[in-house]
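Journal club prep — side note

Before the paper discussion, L.F. wants everyone to see what a predicted structure for a comparable chain looks like in token form. Sequence:
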Amino acid sequence: MNAEFSKKSFMYLSSLSTMINAQQTIPREYPLMIGCGEHDIPAELSAVEAWKKSELKCKTVIFEGAGHCVNMDVPDRFNKTLEEFWMSEKTQNK
């Protein structure tokens, strides 16, 4: 899906890095999964790493072969990962 975007689009998106994680947050009390594609912009990959450090109990997933639109780039893997996460949390909370 990302192939439809021009390279110039990604230059503009990369300038958004100053907006990512600008606010300090407290760790969540609920299950959290953070993910992005391995070919996403560097700012997004850095944001996932930074978020992971502040959310020690979260699950992080970097989807191989995907860009920013993981659900469109690797839909089967994306859906399976979400389902497994939901089911594992459902089982743990019984």
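L.F.'s comment for the group: DSSP finds four helices and two strands in the chain. Keep this in mind when we get to the figures.
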